[in-house]
Design goal:
Layout: H1 3-9, E1 14-21, E2 27-31, E3 43-48, E4 51-64, H2 67-71, H3 74-77, H4 80-90, E5 91-104, H5 112-122, E6 132-133, E7 143-146, H6 149-156, E8 164-170, E9 176-180, H7 181-186, E10 189-192, H8 199-213, E11 217-222, E12 231-232, E13 239-240, H9 243-246, E14 251-256, E15 269-271, E16 273-274, H10 280-284, H11 287-290, H12 296-307, H13 312-318, E17 324-326, E18 332-334, H14 339-346, H15 350-359, H16 361-364, E19 369-370, H17 377-386, E20 390-394, H18 401-428, E21 439-444, H19 447-450, H20 452-455, H21 459-466, E22 472-478, H22 486-489, E23 494-497, H23 503-510, H24 516-524, E24 531-536, E25 543-547, H25 552-557, H26 568-575
Parallel strand pairs: 10-22, 10-23, 11-20, 11-21, 14-15, 14-20, 16-19, 21-22
Antiparallel strand pairs: 1-2, 1-7, 2-5, 3-4, 3-7, 4-5, 5-6, 8-9, 8-25, 12-13, 17-18, 23-24, 24-25
Helix pairs in contact: 12-13, 14-15
Bound molecules: adenosine-5'-triphosphate and magnesium ion (MG).
Amino acid sequence: MTNQQSKINNPQSAIGFIVGGGLRESLLARLTVTADQIQEGGFVVIESGDWQFYGLVTDLRLGASDPRFADEQSEERLPAELAHLLHGQTLFTDLEVMPALMLERGPELDSQEYARWRQQIDLGLKDEPRPLPVKTVPPHHAKVRLAGPGDIAEIFGKAEVQGNFVIGETREQGHPVCINLDKFVQRSSGVFGATGTGKSFLARIVLAGLIQYNRASVLVFDMHNEYGLDDTASDTGERVIGLRTKFPTRMRVVGLGPGAQIRGQTPDFNLEIAARDIRPEDIELLTRELNLKETTPTTLEALVASFGAEHWFAKFKAMKSGAVIEDENGKKVPAPDSVAAWANARGVNVMAAEGLYSKLGRVFRLPYVVENPASDGIGEIIKALEAGQHVALSFGRFERDLDYLLVSNLLTRRIRQTWEHKTNQHRSQPEQAEEPRPLVIVLEEAHKLLNREMAAQTTFSTIARELRKYYVTLLIIDQRPSQIYDEVMSQLGTRISGWLGDDDDIRAVLSGLAGREALRGMLAHLQPKEEVLLLGWGVPMPLPVRSRRYDERFWEELPGKKGRKRSQDEILEELGF
Ligand SMILES: Nc1ncnc2c1ncn2[C@@H]1O[C@H](COP(=O)(O)OP(=O)(O)OP(=O)(O)O)[C@@H](O)[C@H]1O
Ligand SMILES: [Mg+2]
């Protein structure tokens, strides 16, 4: 944006001036307006010569030129006007500002230097200025003002530009704030916040944006049946529109299990898992859930050695535990189709094998794991995603952790194979093999799959750590970020966090970010609902915002959903008036 526009779009007057501070310990600004006009987390601009600095208010502090003036209630002793004058001279409020970015604005607009500066840029001798991380400080007495819509658009991007998506608005003045969806899907990201802070609602908003923008496919592991079909809000009882309702041709809802119904509605197709798809690692993942013993891996290995990776599950399931027959001497021995007979023949500990058999009973009995599925459900999901569609896998009545862990990991493993294969093909023969379509996998209650203990075993942690190169990233949604493995947390690009009460959770969300101390307070002081802090690599600088509302208006404003009408003000503003 040029200087001219930035002045038109930012009719903000100064709220103070710089009186001290530094890069490490924040800048200090003396407030020239009343303190109630400024809040913690406010986005401010500091103008200084050729540079413009952008920062966040991290604290407000009362000060006095001499402590006596602060201690004494002079308004009771002196006439009102006199007291007012005295206070104006001696009592003040200081803002602590965490500087985040700086941008070259160039010399004064009407000066000759400006013309020369601009010409150099136009001739390509100098780069178009862009926001840089702060490396210096503004001088004493540099003016501080609240950021206007132009400043916010300058840093966070303009809503009209393709790929920029309004995620909320600034808290003080309600200016729209965008995230860049291209950047958002380039790395894994996370939505955090205590229960009821609005994570699922915000995730719907982001997903609607992604589907609308259509640069990536989305697969949602919809543990609580919230995303695909219409739902009812638990607190207000109002109807919440599902994504398939608005994107009937782009979104498929898949129900887990034969004949699955989701809230009385029939999904687009059902998913049954073939027994041959279950691998030992899928079972090991359930160690905690099924309370498996440490002998499990050895027994599983022996099963695979006996029957092969595709048949071990069905063969094991078909065995009988504890079955005995009498041999020719009338002695009871394990029946030939018993677990014990197999274990004896393979030299496996019988107790371990029988124990595993009994614990796997819960998996053997899952109605959606069948020997011959009616259709290749996993294949269909993958095909839909490759073809650019989006999928919400609803777990229907299978809401236990066992179902969630088993199915999501198994499906993701197949996806990973497919996407790795496609990427390698594309890299070796770019002319013949198309570039894979980026895929975002959405995980609710992510800590169940990405906790410290489990992370090493799930495909998800591999995705979070390295699948970015294979065009697959995660969007994890969680109330307890502290329970997610730190290595995964530190890989998250964009982090969007609502209010968190627990210190460990706050620390986890901020891990690896600069200015953690200042941001910690900001997170803890968010409103309990519909306010979030934008953080991380995916956003230019941290900023608390009021979340966009997920309602009728949202759908009206989503470009292309309903011929969005721009207001006269918006058109005028764009023209520079
Ligand atoms: N952006 C929003 N637009 C409209 N309503 C919202 C929004 N965010 C939150 N709400 C309201 O807050 C309630 C709780 O939000 P939500 O269900 O998203 O919480 P959550 O963080 O997902 O909680 P949990 O962790 O328990 O799943 C919603 O039922 C809704 O009424
Ligand atoms: Mg939720």
